[in-house]
Amino acid sequence: MAKSKIIQPVKGTRDYYPELMAVRKWLYEVAALVSSAFGYQEYEGPLIESLELYAAKSGDELVKEQSFVFEDRGGNLITLRPELTPTLARMVAQQQNQLTFPLRWWSFGPFWRYERPQKGRTREFFQWNIDLIGSDSPTADAELVAIVASFFQAVGLSPDEAQILVNNRYLMEGELAEIGIQDESFKDIFRLIDRRDKLAPLKWRDYAKDLGLTLQQIDQLEELLRNDDLWQKSPALQGLFPAVESLGVGGYVRFAPYIIRGLDYYTGTVFEAQAIKGDVRRAILGGGRYDNLLSDVGGNQIPAVGFAMGDLVITLVLEELDLIPTDIKTPAASILVTVFNEDSLQESLTLSKELREAGLKVACYPQADKLGKQLKYADKTGVKIALLLGPDEIAAQKVTLKELSSGNQETIPRAESANKLKRMLDLD
Amino acid sequence: MAKSKIIQPVKGTRDYYPELMAVRKWLYEVAALVSSAFGYQEYEGPLIESLELYAAKSGDELVKEQSFVFEDRGGNLITLRPELTPTLARMVAQQQNQLTFPLRWWSFGPFWRYERPQKGRTREFFQWNIDLIGSDSPTADAELVAIVASFFQAVGLSPDEAQILVNNRYLMEGELAEIGIQDESFKDIFRLIDRRDKLAPLKWRDYAKDLGLTLQQIDQLEELLRNDDLWQKSPALQGLFPAVESLGVGGYVRFAPYIIRGLDYYTGTVFEAQAIKGDVRRAILGGGRYDNLLSDVGGNQIPAVGFAMGDLVITLVLEELDLIPTDIKTPAASILVTVFNEDSLQESLTLSKELREAGLKVACYPQADKLGKQLKYADKTGVKIALLLGPDEIAAQKVTLKELSSGNQETIPRAESANKLKRMLDLD
Questions:
Q1: HSE-CB for B261 with a 13 A CA cutoff
Q2: Which residues of A touch B425 (CB under 8 A)?
Q3: ipTM value for the complex
Q4: In DSSP terms, which residues pair with A69 in a beta bridge?
Q5: Are A297 and B367 in contact (CB < 8 Å)?
């Protein structure tokens, strides 16, 4: 029979072989560490939601163009979740009378967006989400910004390498009003501002003209987006910046009037972290305040602030800067119990059991085979020490330890092997 | 405005509020511990796959009736994965020339099946998958069975409470042939055997008659399914049972000729773990050998064995037996820094930062508020110690520690607070 073609994965998904999985796991663990240092609890929502949940406020692009939407066997419109915040709002709204606010919750899970896959972007990806719900204080905004900065510190990103840019939508709305832009245009103008980095300057001005801005308004808008002192007119930002300083991470944070973020539900303060070293400036994460989303999904009005960080861009950035620790890619087992022959198989199994009971990570070769082949296997899979258990060792209640890096071997009493192995592996 | 209705979650999904998330996290951690003790590496596949991947061998029920299938925006038929094994087979087939066999891999992730939600069954659920690929030895089968037993030991399930029932499909095929059943009927008869526990005895016999069995064959089949010595005719099981004994878990394992499992791709040994105490006998997990699946998805023929355990039934069983540890549901933060007034806010933030840097989990109240309200919040969220930082404390470089359980409080130098808190929280 001719060899058939291997069935292909879905475009834009990733296969997490153990080496790649170790990186995602490490990101998760750093996120967990930072989240719990600030007193946040882990939660998770369903991975599918009804389309209605996003239709409210996530924005047309996300819902109409980028979502995986399908009808289930019961005829309901289901969405592979493109983001977590609406789910969080729903979950909090459902238990608003039982929960104690302010609530600090974090999560790390999969999301989907139907976009063209490219470097730093897949259709299935993972995101760290973290939110503080039930406080409208600028200190809450500052706490989320400080969590971003603490994450950067934890992975070794310096303020020269990553920055958190902060703005406030209310501030910008006030300024837009002052240059004669009407309320009903704010959404469009925010989209325009959000595109400033994505379009060439002349194209951007054309886009602005298409939205009905006069040349004077465009000039005024450009001036606004360059004004680094504008934050002083925002009470929320006047509260945020000193708090960020008190939290010891002022060096990572600065005001940037051109940061708007794409989601329609953001209300006041918004922020975006960017990698600023290396080939390209990249948005690592975005966040902001969404004081109306809980009421939009049917709950009471409860103020909230949070951010989401995808796993792809941060991984690229950390790879470029060589900041992913090498020791996270641990071998499967540190110890391999070899099998001398059919007769000794049961003794090898029992030895592996004894060592596991002593807390060691032990693989046992699953059948009798040439010793050379078993040792080669041990070497290729990163095993540190192979154990040999032939008829002589079994008779004498001994075992031979072979260190693969040096080739040195030593025969010791079997009863002492667990402790000896722990010493050799520095596990004491 | 009338209060709008809260948008509902999708039927058959679960909201993992922190308390429920803690249970899933604990299951994950026990699975991780056991998996790595046996030298398995963590991996993960995509959560969506092309329908084609399952069409091959997962079985009609799973693919045609229970899968969430949809067309993506590009017109491809996508499936929310109903199980992991076909993905694993695909991933291994893709890298069959680079990987070192035998391969030991495990995973813990979400799956979907469109079934009627009921106790112990949701449409979105989580599963621990663990597989050994590249060995056809009965010792490999025994290792997977021993992993199940080690998991049971780790969560505190005794052999009186959970059993692993083992059978072999080749053995049964031989026996079926002996009573005159043709090869092409094996699949139907396996389904019949698999339904034995799910149908009333008379209904089951009717089902057997409908499949064309004679009354004599039905009697012979029933006798087969009661024959506890049948395993002695299977070389694979003759290898498995002694190995399970050597691995120290013989007490959990027994032969059961009526265990077949529902997936079409299983070849030789199959097994199922059942909870045998409590109200209902429940299947906790199922597994078996699938020596042809890798070639079915387009790779070389590589023997493999593994199992999958859903999170729902095991959680129900452990809840019924009161085996879920209470200390896994940890509070968000053990320490709350209170905020005396607007003027002291920045000092409170700085204190929280200092304590986090010392490795403590610290929430800071996000704004000035009545102290009573802040202490009530601390109490309700499980905080152990509240820190008070008024003008006097700030001036004297001191801080007041209030233990919430006793109400005792003590004012100490701020520089000593981190160490004192660690002692109070037994973190030293």
A1: 29
A2: none
A3: 0.93
A4: A79
A5: no
